[in-house]
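Q: Sequence in, structure out?
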Amino acid sequence: MKKILCLMTIVLLTSSCGLRKAVTSSFVKEFCSCVFVEQLPEGQCKEFSTYVVPVSSYVLDKSKKSVFATFLFETSFAEFKGERFGCRLEQ
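A: Exactly. Output:
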């Protein structure tokens, strides 16, 4: 019972304060910049881009130079726009 109550509390808090979108948005932006602007290895960029709460999953598309990430049913997308503009968070 305690586990269910704890899980429900976490879901309620994260859904009500915008944490889900913040987690995915910050991850894709940082990860995209790390991989395509700084040209660092994927593993290092994953560590660098993960803050307190890790994303559930992510997809790095090197051919399209983009990153998708998901956390608690919230998805964000960032795309590399070139050397001058770097990565941009898309809606």
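The helical segments are 2-16, 19-37, 42-49.
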